[in-house]
Amino acid sequence: MERVAVGSTNPVKIRATERVAEALFDADVAGVAVNSGVAEQPTGQAETVTGAENRAARALEADHQATYGVGIEGGVAEFEERPGLYLIMWAAVSDGDRLERGGGPSLRLPDDIAERVRDGEELGPVLDDALETEGISEREGAAGVLTGGAIDRESALAHAVAGAFGPIAADFY
Questions:
Q1: What one-character-per-residue DSSP string does 27-79 give?
Q2: What pairing do the DSSP bridges indicate for beta strands 107-108 and 86-94?
Q3: Among candidate residues 49, 19, 57, 55, the one with its CA nearest the CA of residue 37
C-alpha cells in the first residue's frame, strides 16, 4: 500500500487526492498541515505552482511514512491579451526524487468578484460574502459556483492531481 501525504487538512483537497490515488494504486491518503510559502491568495501562475510544489515537498517531509507528497494550490491569474481575472488550480506530486506538476481548469471570475480579489481579498471569503454562505471552499468551491454546478472543487482539483501523478504513474513517460 502506498501512503500519500497531502499538504493540507482541507477535506476537499484530501478527497480529490484520494479519488486519483485510489484509481492508480492501493492508497492510504492523509492530510498534513504545512505552509505553502506563498501568499494566502497566490497571484499568477508562478506563485500558484510554487505553492503547490512547496506543499508537496513539505507534506513528504512531514510524513516519514509517505511514498508521495501532494500539494494543491488555487490562485488567480491574468492571461496576456485576454480579458479578466481567472481562478487557476495547480497540483504537484513529489516522491523525493521527482517533482511533477499538473493544472486544473481556469475559470474567469465575474468582474465584481475579480475587482475585490485584485484589491487584496481572498477569493473564498469574497464568494462567501457575495453568496451569503460560509465555507464554500470546503464544499463546491468557486468551481461549482462559476460553472453552475457542472463541476465542483473536488473534481476540478482531482484533474490537477491526476495531471501531476501522470508522469509518475503512466507507462507512457
A1: EEEEE-----SS-SS-BSHHHHHHHHHHHHHHHHHH-TT-SEEEEEEEEEE--
A2: antiparallel
A3: 55
CA neighbours within 13 Å on the CB side: how many for 47? 13
User: If you average pLDDT over every residue of the chain, what do you get?
Assistant: 96
Domain boundaries, the chain: 2-169
For residue 104, the 8-state DSSP code is -
Task: Name the pTM for this structure.
Answer: 0.94
Which set of grid coordinates corresponds to residue 94? 513529489
- CATH number of the domain at 2-169, please? 3.90.950.10
**CA-to-CA distance for 75 and 79, rounded, in angstroms?**
13
Residue identified by cell 486544473 is: 104
What is the pLDDT, as a whole number, of residue 140?
86
Distance, in Å, from the CA atom of 161 to the CA atom of 166, rounded to the nearest integer, reads 8
